[in-house]
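**User:** I keep going back and forth on a fold encoding question. It is easy to fool oneself when nobody else works the same problem. Could you pick a protein and write out its sequence and tokenised fold? Could you put it straight underneath, so I can go through it closely?

**Assistant:**
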Amino acid sequence: MLAIVAAATILSLLAVILSNRVSPLAALILIPILGAVAAGMAPGIPGYIVAGLTKIAPVAGMFVFAILFFGIMTDAGLLAPLVNGVLRLVGERPSRITVGTAALALLIHLDGSGAVCFLVTIPALRPLYDRLGMDRRVLACTASMAAGVNFLPWTGPTLRAGAALKLPVATIFTPMIGVQLVGLGFVFAASWWLGIREERRLAVERRGPVSGDRLAVTTAVPSAAEQALRRPRLYWVNVLITLVVVVTMVAGLMEPVVVFMAGTALALILNYPTAAEQRERIDAHARAALMMAGILFAAGAFTGIMAGSGMIKALAQASVAHVPDAIGPRIPVLLGLLSMPLSLLFDPDSFYFGVLPVIAEVAGHFGVPAVQVAQAALLGQMTTGFPVSPLTPATFLVAGLSGIELGAHQRFSIPWLFAASVVMTIAALLFGIFAL
């Protein structure tokens, strides 16, 4: 009964968000509450929510101050030279810009942090996309694909898979290098195709052909108000502050929320010394920060209820309770194909520590090594799936930083991310890692 309620709760959440009928904030709060009431766990709801909020609070704080920090730095003109540099490197052809987006996201995600990847990549390139009139959903999708396919030995899913099944990380990852390279090839090919589609759309809208290395567009000139906010004399100081903030966060020397809080305060004081100027800059970005905080706290309530009530655990056990004999030897292939959609149903801890050991145990009865189960999970579960899952803060970060609706991001990106997962599963079959 509890598993049925859990499945109905998650499917209802996905349905209302993807249909854009209810705001994500309202859906993330009300739907799990209704689910817990239906499961007869109404008295525990307040405690579940508080527990979820406690876990999400540092993440929400980091995102709020990250939005303020990068907003202030953008106002001060930090990203303008970067955008111009990208323009000089790739021209103004969308097909080159989308490939550059994927490459930048891939490089930044080498630290294994999806949040850092999106916090750096999207604010840096969004002005370029807006300048050319490109679809922001393409920006969100290409960055998501590059970060999602880039599963590494030090990333969360790989570490969780190794810990859950008591396997060395190298044993899981090393045979998958070729598969990952195939996945990255798909990412760049898909990014290029998305760029080609944008070129065609923009050419039709502007009734002008794309020729040479440049698309016929008018270069945006900063307004007088924007120019007044620029701080060219402090450019290298702002670069240094940004590098210190990012390096400190990536190196794990300090909690990310503390890093961004300190960075925001320092950026405000140096670039806009008066209290009035500081209030104006905070007010300018407060709406985006407040919306992000609200969504993240709502997500905390959702995960708190789902985990605290036991609904996630029940769904995990029910999902693998009955496996036909004909399917047993093919569990890795099936898991590889289903791993990305499963990111929409299970948070990473629940899946890797709750579901994966059960799947590995079942597969073991059919002679399937546990390492293959771990490798299959990495092909999509919270890898290609994490940038669109309502159970991860990164999803809301991608949508918020890109300036698009969550449902719009999911509808656009899910088919491409799922395709990447399928391509890698097929590659694993061809390389002999899995067998039919």
About this structure: Residues 55-154+173-206+226-303 form one domain.
